[in-house]
């Protein structure tokens, strides 16, 4: 099926923090889609054809769909749990909620609602932690496949320091992950992420098993958590007394490469920063979570200067919003506290092409380049009365983007397309 989606079209081909020639913008633009793939982008007048189905989103902006590179599927009912920092929050709220995902019916019911929330917020792809149960990953992949969404996910491996009903073993964590990789990795748009939760909840044997999986499946991403919270770091180092630092634990178990996503990466030693750069490991900034759990301030400019690629993510349910707009809003404020600047163009680059690069998937998602999957978000900068009033004084695209970034949320998402299909009901 061929269709033309018309609107004010924006995407990025370079990082605005590195060059002025970072994006293209068509005030009356269009995207030609065929069978879920972008075939052409340009001025509407150049792309229109007699008889071609058209949807007109003017005056709204159309961008590549947002990518969320760190989110926890079984925490949909944990988000907004009061009063704790990381380790207490995990024990009191998160682990009990995740224990319910061994029930396939619960996992399936939540998977559909989780994906609906993502697309309602303009997110078209995510890298998700599932619970320890293979059933939870199975439910998420099945639901994503049914929706046509590119999901990167993995069951967490965790064999200690949680609760008995959330523990796998080094062997069963390996076996279950392997079976899920064989079943789902590369099936349609689904990909597997090898997911040792973090060093506290894995024995050295389990981290070795995860390293073996990483070596055996060299095209799978690896996701974990690192240096989020000071008590976490102290506890981790007490469990691995031989380690030079936190990163060294993952390093010595064969878990560092350009496929590795290290969630949080806040309280880093100079040696860790140098080693992350050397191995190509990625950092993932989770602003709403870092503020909510009182974890700390992510040094985006410092890591960039060291040559480290970083993504930006919600980290729901430690994070407090599914919205990448709200995530960019809080990210802007954290960087303000550090004396760093996040420009509107850099922000929207980050949530789209920047995150795709972090995942090594920029050939398929994150831009509107011909051949990419037609995952799009349509943004309405006048979605609320307060936004509309502020927009009366907006003169530039950058101002409009900033209003979306600071004031926007799911109300500003007029439509989301996944592989060319609208996810919100359309008016007839
Ligand atoms: N570290 C280990 N597990 C988690 C988690 O579920 N959320 C956050 N924010 N940090 C973690
Ligand atoms: Zn997390």
From TrEMBL:
It catalyses: guanine + H2O + H(+) = xanthine + NH4(+). Its cofactor is Zn(2+). Residues 62-422 form the Amidohydrolase-related domain. Keywords: Hydrolase, Metal-binding, Zinc. Its EC number is 3.5.4.3. One of its GO terms (molecular function) is guanine deaminase activity. The keyword ATP-binding does not apply. InterPro entries: Amidohydro-rel (IPR006680), Guanine_deaminase (IPR014311), Metal-dep_hydrolase_composite (IPR011059), Metal_Hydrolase (IPR032466), Metallo-dep_hydrolases (IPR051607). Pathway: Purine metabolism; guanine degradation; xanthine from guanine: step 1/1. Binds 1 zinc ion per subunit. The keyword Membrane does not apply. It comes from the Bacteria. Belongs to the metallo-dependent hydrolases superfamily. ATZ/TRZ family. Catalyzes the hydrolytic deamination of guanine, producing xanthine and ammonia. This is Guanine deaminase. It comes from Paracoccus albicereus.
């Amino acid at each position: 099926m061929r269709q033309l989606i018309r609107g004010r079209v924006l995407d990025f081909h370079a990082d605005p923090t590195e060059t002025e020639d970072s994006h293209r913008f068509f005030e009356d633009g269009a995207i030609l889609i065929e069978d879920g793939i972008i075939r052409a982008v340009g001025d509407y007048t150049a792309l229109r054809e007699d008889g071609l189905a058209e949807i007109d989103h003017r005056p709204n902006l159309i961008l590549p769909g947002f990518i969320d590179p760190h989110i926890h599927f079984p925490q949909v009912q944990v988000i907004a749990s009061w009063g704790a920092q990381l380790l207490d929050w995990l024990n009191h709220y998160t682990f009990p909620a995740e224990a319910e995902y061994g029930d396939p019916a619960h996992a399936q019911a939540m998977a559909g609602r989780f994906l609906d929330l993502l697309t309602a917020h303009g997110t078209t792809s995510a890298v998700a932690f599932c619970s320890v149960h293979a059933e939870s990953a199975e439910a998420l992949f099945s639901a994503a496949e049914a929706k046509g969404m590119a999901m990167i996910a993995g069951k967490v491996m965790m064999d200690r320091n949680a609760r008995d009903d959330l523990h796998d073993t080094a062997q069963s964590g390996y076996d279950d992950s392997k079976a899920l990789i064989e079943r789902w990795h590369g099936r349609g748009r689904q990909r597997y992420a090898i997911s040792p939760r973090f060093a506290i909840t894995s024995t050295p044997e389990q981290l070795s098993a995860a390293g073996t999986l990483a070596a055996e499946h060299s095209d799978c991403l690896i996701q974990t958590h690192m240096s989020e919270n000071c008590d976490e770091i102290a506890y981790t180092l007490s469990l691995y007394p031989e380690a030079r630092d936190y990163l060294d634990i993952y390093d010595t178990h064969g878990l560092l490469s350009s496929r590795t996503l290290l969630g949080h990466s806040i309280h880093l030693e100079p040696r860790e920063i140098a080693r992350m750069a050397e191995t190509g490991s990625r950092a993932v900034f989770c602003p709403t979570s870092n503020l909510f759990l009182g974890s700390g301030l992510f040094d985006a400019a410092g890591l960039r200067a060291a040559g480290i690629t970083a993504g930006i993510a919600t980290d729901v349910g430690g994070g407090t919003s599914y919205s990448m707009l709200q995530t960019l809003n809080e990210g802007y404020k954290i960087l303000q506290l550090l004396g760093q600047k996040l420009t509107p163009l850099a922000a929207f680059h980050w949530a789209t092409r920047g995150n795709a690069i972090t995942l090594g998937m920029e050939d398929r998602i994150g831009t509107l380049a011909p051949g990419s999957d037609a995952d799009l978000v349509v943004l309405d900068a006048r979605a609320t009365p307060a936004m509309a009033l502020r927009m009366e004084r907006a003169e530039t695209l950058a101002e409009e983007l900033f209003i979306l970034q600071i004031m926007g949320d799911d109300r500003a998402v007029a439509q989301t397309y996944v592989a060319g299909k609208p996810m919100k009901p359309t008016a007839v």
